[in-house]
Amino acid sequence: MGATSMPEALDLGPALRIVEEMSPITDSVIIPLLQRLQDEYGHVPPDVVLAVCRRTGLPASRVYGVATFYEQFHLQPRGKHLVRCCRGTACHVRGAPRVIDAVRSSLNIEDGGTTEDGLFSLETVACLGACALAPVVVIDGQYQGQVTPRKMESALRRIVKEES
Ligand code: FES
Predict the structure, then answer these.
(1) Which CATH class, in words, describes the domain spanning 81-163?
(2) How far apart are CA 127 and CA 89, in angstroms?
(3) Domain residue spans of the chain
(4) What is the pLDDT of residues 73-125, one digit of tens each?
(5) Residues with CB under 6 A from ligand 1
(6) Rounded distance from Cα 33 to ligand 1 centre (Å)
(7) Which residue of 6, 45, 53, 66 shows the fewest CB atoms closer than 10 Å?
(8) If you take atom 1 of ligand 1, which residue's CA is the nearest one?
């Protein structure tokens, strides 16, 4: 596992169809527009943003500004399995940094990265809302409490095994 792979050529047709359906495109529809684009492509590809801006006249800086401000939008493709590690205070004092290090080195990616095989993406989060279970990791929406580096390593190994 390693760094993110090269993106494939994109079909801009669906993006232009969405623009057509949502016209007129103004500042006030940037968020729903980005949501539709992300639903369609799985993330918000920069080439799609540029094509949409050319078609609509929206400034690319404005659209990128919104896309990067909100955590819900992803400019890079994400892996099949999403690992979200809490780095909040409650988790931090109970060992989250060691857990996050273990996940990073098991997957060989940094925060926000995706493994080369597209299997995993890693995100760290300010609080996962389950502080009583600290330290907390959520894998594909499943909360795991009181995790340790070892527990995480074996959870990730189990997923790799299931996928092979
Ligand atoms: S600080 Fe980790 S769940 Fe709240």
Answers:
(1) alpha beta
(2) 8
(3) 13-69, 81-163
(4) 988 888 999 999 999 999 999 999 999 999 999 999 999 899 999 999 999 99
(5) 86, 88-91, 127-131, 134, 136
(6) 31
(7) 6
(8) 88
